[in-house]
Amino acid sequence: MGHRVRKHVLPAVLVVAAFTMSACSTNSSGTSTKSPSNAPAADSSAAALQGSIAFNDDKLAELRDKIKAALAGKDLSKVDNAVVVNVVSAYWDAAKTGAEKGASELGVKSTFQEPPTQDVTLQLSMINTLVSQGITGFSVSAIQPSAMGSAVSAATARGVNILPIDGPMQQYQSDAPVYLGTPNYAAGQQAGKAMAQMLPNGGDVALLTGSLTATNATQRIAGFKDAIKDTKIKVFQVYNDNGDAGKALQNASAAMQADPNLKAFYTVWSYDGPSAGQAVQSAGKSGKVQILADDAEPKTLQMLKSGVIQAMVLQQPYQQGYMAEYILTAMKVLGKDATMALLKPYLESDGYTLSSGIGVVTAADLDAYNAKLASFGLASS
């Protein structure tokens, strides 16, 4: 099967002392107070959800500046980074934009690649080819972390630095010592707490996900389930679509048919939210079956505004692409130990995770969130 790969070699620019980045500026958190006037009727408890779009931007901006200072005056001409994600998605467009921005600021080369489907063999082939072509480091959202062993070993043997993004790969921590992305269990917990506010009287919830093996998915689902343990909410079923938005739509429709009393969906992967929204609309249940969606694809934003989706639990793929360029460049130029020393004060309590932040957005927060996206040069995240 052929595949579409977008490959970008970014132009070099000088790193200047006067550098600033508006995309990492502080944004205020929003608070949901009411549903939009054109929204379908829904449980009024959804309007009580409090949104937050601060993410972890301030700390990441501080870390970026420290890395910049450490790199000042160093030769970056041999740096050749790559970003390899897990599937073509609007979610990853934000990471691509971030990687381009970071590489441009540093004046280093970078390549962005994405398989059209969640094909483990194809992703591994992409990585092995990039390593053989002489890249100095790559960030990766692994489709199946357990399958990455040979690729990690081959890359490490050639001195290529590895940075997991989006989903951790702790089994390879000796070779890839830091994970840049969402603390996925915490994100799932936040989603579970939000769902408890949306359904104060409990009810059945169906989960839609693109994988039952990817660490980011399993951790988010685990966090969600743990957060609702002491509530009257029950997980009716977890539906896997294997990265196929069309299958996600079928799963959402099947869930409502199988459980006429279904109260809500929690959608784990970015395209699952719009798929659930489409199914709910087709069934004439907008507002009656609520949706809490991870990530903010364009259709998700539209459905949030119209009231089909009640809230979004958001990651920061832009920061995953942007900060990856700084971290991989530092590992190549300063060395892994010196880079980890810079990162250490910013890591989570596990000593492994560099959080790109978690946000919650409701309809009341949309203006502030859209302003944040615009500061990144994005229409969605």
UniProtKB/TrEMBL annotation:
Chief location of this protein within or outside the cell: other
Signal peptide range: 1-23
Intracellular or extracellular location(s): Cell envelope
InterPro entries associated with the record: Bact_Solute-Bind_Prot2 (IPR050555), Peripla_BP_I (IPR028082), SBP_2_dom (IPR025997)
GO MF annotation list: carbohydrate binding
GO cellular component: a single term: outer membrane-bounded periplasmic space
Domain Periplasmic binding protein: 88-331
Matches recorded under Pfam families: Peripla_BP_4
Keywords, comma-separated and alphabetical: Signal
PANTHER family per record: ABC TRANSPORTER PERIPLASMIC-BINDING PROTEIN YPHF, D-XYLOSE-BINDING PERIPLASMIC PROTEIN
Family listed: Belongs to the bacterial solute-binding protein 2 family.
Protein name: Sugar ABC transporter substrate-binding protein
Species in which this protein is naturally found: Actinacidiphila oryziradicis
